[in-house]
Structure formats: structure tokens, C-alpha cells
Amino acid sequence: MNVTCLIPFYNERERIAHVLHVITKIRTIKQVLCVDDGSTDGTAAYIKKNWPQVQVVQLPHNQGKTAAIAYALKYVKNDVILMMDADLQELRKEEIVAAIEAFHTQPGIDMIILRRINSPWFVRWYRSDILLSGERLLRKSDLKQVMKQRVQRYQLEVGINRYMLRHKKVVRWMPWSAMNTYKVDKLGVLDGSKKEFKMYVEIVSFVGFSHMMLQLASFTKRLKHQQQNTEARAAFKNGLLENVYLL
Fold first, then answer.
1. pTM of the entire structure?
2. Residue 4 vs residues 30, 74, 76, 111, 140: alpha-carbon distances, Å
3. What is residue 10's DSSP assignment?
4. Could you say which DSSP state residue 93 is in?
5. What is the dihedral of CA 81, 85, 88, 94, to 10 degrees?
6. 3-237 belongs to which homologous superfamily?
7. Domain boundaries, given as residue ranges, for the chain
8. H or E segment to which residue 160 belongs
9. pLDDT digit string (tens) for 182-210?
10. Rounded Cα distance, 150 and 28, in Å
11. Residue of 213, 74, 85 whose CA lies nearest to 147
12. How far is CA 207 from each of CA 34, 74, 194, rounded to the nearest angstrom?
């Protein structure tokens, strides 16, 4: 199975190197497509210089993550997309490979979410580690349909969730050790908190309170341990994994 890894970014020169260092070593990812959402810190030039195999497309000015993904879809070459944030820390290659293998060997699954299991307790309490995770495997055809909704900026992940729920798609999550960099760490406590608040207001206003409660209560469940172990062993046997982590 050939996969396109789609990475939108805005001023992530200090953080994107770690992500690309891992992603470019996974052989089933045949296309790494980075989308510059109007950065001003030279991230695009930095990527082109250090990772010439990575494709970079650029928006003329900052329009938000959703607009960046929508713009990049026309450049995606493969039917399966791995969405990936640019500011991740502690990525593990074997976890990404296991997720791709699971998606490949379980044709009935329409999306796999990589759940950020190392998120703070309050993030896990209201399920943002699942619902708002930017790391997802899904089909290009489904993502195109999502983009037909009026999705903007911070609403992409809950927009995908809503689409999957409404169309009775099969969604599972797998544990994911990586951590994202919070806005307060990037922008400071005051500006970061304002951005976080704005994000949640936009999310709830898009899907509505009742549907947000539905997502919080019942959206997706874990890929069964037996399935994960089987897929991990198969990946290890095929030389895709260096280590096997059984749950």
C-alpha cells in the first residue's frame, strides 16, 4: 500500500525537522507533501534544502490548517493519506508503520486515529487526545468529501469525525506516543490561551453542542489488542518494524 503523508505547517522551522526525519524513513510512505500555510520564518526553504525528496507547496498567505489541506489535495498522488502535524515530539517510527499496516490489512476500517496517549489528564478526560488528534489514516476520497462541508481553520478534525459518523464509517484508534506542541509553548501563556479558547469556540460553533456531545460520548473505539498484535508481528516478519510493542 502506497501512502501520502500530508503535513501542513505555519512557522514550524524549529520543530518540523524531527517529524521529517522519521517520516522520510518509512518505505510505504511514497510521497511526503508539506503545505506551507503562508509561513514567514523560511520553513519551506529549509525543507527544500535539507529534504529534497519532500514535495513542498505554498499558500501565498496564512489561511488556516483546513485551507492548507484543501489546497494540497490536488497534489496528493496516492489513495491513502496519513495526516500529520508539523510540531510533534517523540515520534516512533514503529507506531506509524503499525498503523499503516493495520489500515492495509483491515479493509473494513475507513479511518485510524493515532491517539495521543501521553497527553495531560485533562486532555484525555474530554477526549481531545482522540477527537482533535491531527494524526489520521484515511482515504483521499473521504477527505475530499469532508472538504465539501463548510470547514474552516480549527474545525478540520471534528469535521472529519462528523462526516465519518454521518456516513456510518468504521473508525478505530491506536495508541500514539508522540506529543504535539501546545499553543502556550509556542506563543506564550496569554496569546496561546487566547488561541486555544478561539479554537474550541470555532469547533463547537461548527458541529453544534449536541453533536459535540455525541463525539465526546461515543465516537470511535480502540483497535482490538489481538488485531494490533497480529499486525505488528506481520510487520516485524516483513521487515517493516525494528521492534514489536505488544499490548
1. 0.79
2. 6, 12, 7, 14, 9
3. S
4. H
5. 0
6. Spore Coat Polysaccharide Biosynthesis Protein SpsA; Chain A (3.90.550.10)
7. 3-237
8. helix 156-166
9. 544 555 556 655 666 566 566 566 666 66
10. 32
11. 74
12. 28, 26, 21
